[in-house]
């Protein structure tokens, strides 16, 4: 037990350092990069997420379907950015379905229908949600608005981790995620609210009149939704028999491991901010 304690402390230190530098890099890109740079970053995250959902989970075994998913996922972000018309989306979806399912129909040994369904899901689901960053980007002061879902989700994640380690006693859902506790969950909700209030105070200090109450409410709601997103993707990992989606970031896993909670907070921010900006 004593030998394990230094290893745990080292792992926690690595986790914190990676989180700090990774978050700083993401904020730098979203705040300072031109639109094409933001799109490039989002398409990279979308492509990595598609790769992890198909290859890392083992849900798709055919390399051509994995490559198809990655390319389409990256392309979805650019299509949102440059407002692909509805007719273009219709032809794209038809082509994606054909490429994913026709091999299973005419050559059953090449790929199964389940693999085709997983490939189509990976191609469009996560990239479409990530593209909501671009909805926020188009709002007045959109660059700073884009950070809101990240602040809410990652503040909640951090406080949930620390709260669970300090006070965790009652398991939240041991079947899906054995380490998460109710105490950590409530600390996460408080952490999301606290993180957003601090962010609102920073924006106010920079001369941007934002509502502390609105940001606190979004942070608390983000803590709940972020936990739901974390548990949802934990269930996917559990069904695939893996601990993390990837090894991109030490002690954090892959792109989906870092953005799983953000994916559930983003739609809330994209729905609320256009009406209050």
Total count of helical runs of at least 4 residues: 11
Measured by DSSP, the beta-strand proportion falls in under 5%
- For the termini, the CA-CA separation is 53 Å
Domain count: the total is: 2
Arithmetic mean of pLDDT: 89
Specify the biggest β-sheet: 2 strands, antiparallel
Total beta-strand segments: 2
Low-confidence stretches: none
How would the global form be characterised?
globular
Query: What is the helix/strand order?
Result: HHHHHHHHEEHHH
Radius of gyration: 20 Å
> Helicity level, as a percent range?
over 70%
* Widest beta sheet: strand line-up: 1-2
Structural class: mainly alpha
Describe the structure.
- The structure is a single chain.
- The protein is mainly α and 277 residues long.
- It folds into two domains: 1-30 and 131-277, no CATH class; 33-129.
- It is built from eleven helices and two strands; from the N terminus they run ααααααααββααα.
- The chain has helices at residues 4-32, 35-56, 63-81, 86-106, 113-130, 132-137, 142-145, 147-167, 182-205, 212-240, 255-276, and strands spanning 171-173, 177-181.
- Strands 1-2 form a two-stranded antiparallel ribbon.
- A hairpin with a 3-residue loop joins strand 1 and strand 2.
- Helix 4 (86-106) runs antiparallel to helix 5 and helix 8 (147-167) packs antiparallel against helix 9.
- The longest helix is centred in the first third of the chain and has 29 residues, at 4-32.
- The radius of gyration is 20 Å and the shape is globular.
- The mean pLDDT is 89.
């Amino acid at each position: 037990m004593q030998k394990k304690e230094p290893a745990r402390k080292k792992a926690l230190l690595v986790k914190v350092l990676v989180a700090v530098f990774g978050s700083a890099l993401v904020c730098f890109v979203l705040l300072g990069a031109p639109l094409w740079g933001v799109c490039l970053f989002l398409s990279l995250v979308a492509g990595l997420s598609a790769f992890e959902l198909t290859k890392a989970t083992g849900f798709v075994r055919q390399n051509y379907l994995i490559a198809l998913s990655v390319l389409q996922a990256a392309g979805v972000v650019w299509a949102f950015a440059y407002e692909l018309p509805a007719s273009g989306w219709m032809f794209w979806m038809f082509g994606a379905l054909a490429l994913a399912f026709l091999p299973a129909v005419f050559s059953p040994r090449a790929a199964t229908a389940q693999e085709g369904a997983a490939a189509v899901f990976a191609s469009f689901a996560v990239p479409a949600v990530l593209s909501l960053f671009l909805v926020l980007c188009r709002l007045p002061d959109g660059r700073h608005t884009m950070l809101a879902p990240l602040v809410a989700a990652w503040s909640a994640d951090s406080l949930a981790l620390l709260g669970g380690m300090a006070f965790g006693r009652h398991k939240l859902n041991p079947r899906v995620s054995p380490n998460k506790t109710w105490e950590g969950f409530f600390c996460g909700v408080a952490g999301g609210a606290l993180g957003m209030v601090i962010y609102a105070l920073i924006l106010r200090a920079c001369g941007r009149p934002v509502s502390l109450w609105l940001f606190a409410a979004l942070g608390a709601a983000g803590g709940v939704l972020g936990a739901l997103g974390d548990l949802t993707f934990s269930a996917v990992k559990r069904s695939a028999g893996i601990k993390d989606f990837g090894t991109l970031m030490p002690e954090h896993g892959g792109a989906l491991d870092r953005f799983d909670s953000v994916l559930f907070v983003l739609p809330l921010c994209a729905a609320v901010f256009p009406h209050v900006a």
